[in-house]
Structure formats: C-alpha cells, structure tokens
Amino acid sequence: MDDPSETSAPASFFDLSRAELSVGLDRSFRATQLFEAVYRHWIDDLDLITNLPRALRSSLKSRVDIRPSPVTRRFEAEDGTRRYLIQLADGELAEAVFIPDGARNTICVSSQVGCALACQFCLTGQLGFGRHLTAGEIVSQVIIAQRDNVIPDLPDHFNIVLMGMGEPLHNYDNVMKALGILHDPAGLNMSMSRITLSTAGLVPEIARMAAEPLIPNLAISLTGATDEKRDRLMPINRTYPIADLVGALRRFPLKRRQRITLEYVLLADTTDSGDDALALARIASSIDAKVNLIPLNESPDLVFKRPNEAVVARFQGILRQRGVDAFIRRSRGDDISAACGQLKKKWADQPEIDLGALRL
Ligand code: SAH
Which end of the chain has fewer CB atoms at under 10 Å, N or C? Predict the structure, then answer.
C-alpha cells in the first residue's frame, strides 16, 4: 500500500502555529525562520528561503504549502475599499475587505462561509450556515489583503476586525487559533489591541474568551435595545437575552482605558426612536461601553430602510446627552457590496478590477 504521507496534499502553512510547525524539524529555530520568511518577507516559494538547508526545503514541500489561497475576484470601490473573493480548497469562497484610512487601515475578515444566526437585517444571515473557516483560511485573508495593499511589513500599519461573514464565536477554536498565529512575534506580531472581534452575543463563548491568554477588543452587535425588539431582529437573543449578555460583558476583563463597543444598526421606524435611544443609553452606561451607530446598509433583499440623517443625528444626540460616547459609522465600499452586513457571495454585477495586477 502507498504511504499516505506521500499522497496527501500538503497542509496550509497558515493553519500551523509555530509550535506545530516545529514538530519533526531538526531544530526549533527552523520554524521561526519559516515564520519570518513567510510573514515578514512575504516569500511564497520554499526554494527561496535560502537560510534553510536544501534538503529541508525539499522535504518541507510535501508537508506545507506556503502560498496563500488564490484570489478569484477583487472589486474596488470608489472610496478605495477593496473586496476579495478567495478560493478555498473545497470550492467555497471566503470574503475579505480592505478599508484604507490613512494610518488606520483596516482588514475585515470572515470567520465562516455564511452564518447560522439569521439576523433579519444582515444579508449574510440569508445565506444560512455554510461551514466554519479553518484558522489558516482566516489568517490567509489577512495575508492576502496585507500583501495586495503593500503595507510595509510593520504590524502597526493596520487593524483587523472580525466583522466579515459569519459569527466568530460560533467558530471559537479556529478563530482563537488564528489570533494566536497572527499574534506570534516571529510572524505578523499583531497586538491584541489592534484586533476587534465582533459578536452577535454568544454568552458562554464570551465568558470562555474572558479566560484566554489572548483577548482581542470586543464589539457586540446589539441593534435591539429591548428583548422584545432584539428577539425579533436577532433570533440569538431568544437564547441569550440582553440581561445575560450584559452580565457577561460586566465580567469581561478590560485593560486600562479599554472599553467594549456596542454596534447598533439604525433601522428606520424599527430601532431609531427616542425610546430606543434611551434604552440603548441605559445599557451602554451600565457597562461603560461606547456605541457605534451604523445606519443600515440597504439592499433590495432587505425589508428595512435606513433612517434619514436628521433621525440619525437626533439618535446620537440623545445618547450623548446621557453621557454615552456615540459615533456614527460611515459606510465604506457599499458600491461593491463590501459594507457591513452586505457580504453575500455576490459578484456578477460588480465592477471588477484587473487581477493581472495582483501580485500575491
Ligand atoms: N456575526 C458578527 C460579525 C459579523 S456582522 C456580529 O454579529 O457581530 C458585522 C456587523 O455588521 C455587525 O455589527 C452587524 O450588526 C452589522 N450589520 C449586519 N447587517 C448590516 C446591514 N445591512 N447594514 C449595516 N450593518 C449591518
């Protein structure tokens, strides 16, 4: 019988922690050399890692593949936002978004194909659950967006938000593993203060994350400020109602000057009333959270509408009057369906840019 190790496809490099990579290597610093070559020098061919012995390079070829997943489509918005459709080994697609903003560039990554939570105002929710992304598929999205946007290989030049497709805490283990790989000092060396995990509010996983050695910034998608509204808009609230969520957030460990963010989608005549603002202000004050108001990104596939600017400003004003720091999140990349909640495997009708220019 054939030796299966000779026929099975090599593992994705981006799926491996440095400790996993070092298993079977003659010296532990070899894994560090590999991490530096791939994450710092962007090398995508083992033969070009010349500080590794030739024999090791060739034996590694059957074990690991250091190329990021291929990009099948890339779209560019008028504001410079770029959306990537990334081809996964099983034919599925992962979506990632690069949002340029001077010194605060952001890479937005997906944690799942589709999503199980069915939030009523979110297009990804309409897809249903496809599958979890592996840690390597999550890391790979970051690498693709980083390399394509020629960010100098300094970690301080971008933030990462887990706000693409999927519910990151539903894919807990793979997401945590990806954070560890992104944080590795021999690799991208991303500080946890530059990573934000956004969740619809999976209470047991929030508690579990509170005990991790690596804890990213936490953003909670609230959107309904009463159980009655939130039950309807975000079915997950029927399992973990607002009081339970607030309890978990109170216990969540924060560094000095760090705060939890509440994301609140403004839906005309549904979540934008004065009473909604007061209910939201009470929740935010009780946990000293700041609030990001997100006027709905509309779609023909959604029944909800975006409130007009005066309503948005009034809503923000009520929060501020109550001493809550509330910001209005400007929509980015909405002309290419790259904005929050708009990721839905959509590509045929989008302006596409030439992939020939893509050096990945
Ligand atoms: N499942 C995670 C992360 C993905 S959603 C979560 O729920 O947080 C990322 C953000 O986009 C969430 O805050 C969500 O409330 C918001 N969002 C979803 N659909 C939207 C839409 N149509 N317009 C504006 N924001 C939306």
Answer: N
Helix, strand, coil in percent for the chain, rounding step 5: 40, 20, 45
Identify whether 115 is a catalytic site residue: no
Tokens 């080994």 locate to 89
Query: Measured at the alpha carbon of residue 96, what is the angle toward residues 91 and 98, in degrees to the nearest 5?
Result: 150
Between the CA of 167 and the centroid of ligand 1 the distance, in Å, is 10
| Residue of minimum CA distance from atom 15 in ligand 1 | 221
Give yes or no for residue 292 CB within 6 A of ligand 1: no
Q: State the closest ligand 1 atom to the C-alpha of 299, by its place in the atom list counted from 1.
A: 22
CB 92 within 8 A of CB 130: yes
- What confidence tens digit (pLDDT) does each residue in 271-308 have? 999 999 999 999 999 999 999 999 999 988 999 999 99
Tell whether pTM > 0.90: yes
Name the average pLDDT for the chain.
Answer: 90
Spot the catalytic one: 76, 95, 137, 167.
95
Which amino acid, 40? R
Closest residue by CA, ligand 1 atom 20? 341
More confident residue, 323 or 352: 323
Contacts of 306 (CB under 8 A, 6+ apart): 266, 267, 268, 295, 296, 297, 298
For the beta carbon of residue 254, count every other beta carbon within 10 angstroms: 15
Q: In this structure, what DSSP letter does residue 329 have?
A: P
Q: Which amino acid, residue 129?
A: F
Respond yes or no: is residue 137 known to be catalytic: no
C-alpha 166 to ligand 1 mean position (Å): 9
Nearest CA to ligand 1 atom 4: 163
Secondary element (H or E) of residue 85: strand 82-87
Q: What is the pLDDT of residue 193?
A: 94
State if residue 271 touches ligand 1 by the CB under 6 angstroms criterion. Answer: no
State phi, psi for 201 to the nearest 5 degrees: 110, 55
Amino acid letter for position 174: N
Helix/strand/coil for 232: helix
Q: Which of 108, 120, 163, 249 to mutate to test the pocket of ligand 1 (most atoms within 8 A of CB)?
A: 163
pLDDT digits (tens, 9 = 90+) for 298-336: 988 999 999 999 999 999 999 999 999 999 988 777 776
